[in-house]
Fold this protein.
Amino acid sequence: MFYKYMTVDNQGKKILYLYLNSTEEFSQDFSYQEKPSLPLYRRVYQYIKNQNIPFDGDQVCIVVNGIIIDSFSLSDYDGPNDSLVEVLSVDHGVSQKLIDLNHSTGIVERLKVDEYIFGIISNEMPSIFSEESLKAQAVVARTYAVKRLSRNLPIRDYSKAYIYRDKNYLKEIWGSKYDSYTKKIREAIRQTKDEVIKFDGDYIDAYYHLSSHGKTEDSSNVLKLAYPYLKSVSSTFDIDSNNVGYRIVPNEYLSQLLNVEITEDTEIQLLMKTIGHRVKYIRFGDKVFDGLLLARRLGLDSNDFSVSIGKRATTFTTRGHGHGLGLSKYGAEGMAKAGYNYRQILNHYYPNTYIEKEENFGKNISA
């Protein structure tokens, strides 16, 4: 059956890896297109029991030739009664194609695209958000995945914007809400099945951010390239006090960082703002700084900021959170609460684009 096993403690979550040779007849029983069947749960359960494996976790990963081909929870199987606790419906649509997810641990996990999208939405969009905003995030995440796959680019569990969380992590942070949140997010994925965002026949670069303060940003001010679908648009639904942040920086540290002597008498002048109402250029003393680069160096929430110098420290007051490109997550939620559907939300934040059902989605993915 399995020729070895390994237990791993991943940030407090125990995972059991069971290794199998592809030449073993048992490996052929695993299907990429469906949830493990009762006989497979039974075999795994009996193997753990017979080998006296000291494992009290939940997640089990099946590894064939160094690649995780299946991952499931033991909690779905009632060992004493030899029965499945829950049987999920199976969707054989194109959105069930496979991707290889590169984990920061070096492990490559093969999973269905819908499972990847679920892990992205669960981390990137608050689960208490409205159904329409969750649908919008589903289409955005799918667009990102399809574009990466179409260009044979790797997909990682952790990038600058798209961070994937597995269900064991989600069970821990959601607690008793796990089942209801899972159902809600999977429904958002189902209702947007295979839909992606396109411009001029190609997938867009689906940038998004947490919140703006009245307007999103133009791509020319962040990426130095002007994308027709990453233009500044109004984002009035996410203006509130929760978007205001503060960063207090000691004047001595700021002086060293900027190479300018900062005192309460230092002259500050805002030279120019972007079309998205963010700081483009600002002058401290006799030096001029790029607002976006300065915000990044200081770790500010955004480059929509104002400055107040005190005797010992300088206070930066920021509004909004993120680079301001594309979809505003809190703006999407505000629009959803105001009655807009996910298509209207996406068309607003990505002007000049259209949503298309990708019938050949995943055709270049090798199973």
In short: Residues 144 and 206 are 6 Å apart (CA to CA). Residues 131-150 form the longest helix (20 residues). The chain has nine helices and 22 strands.
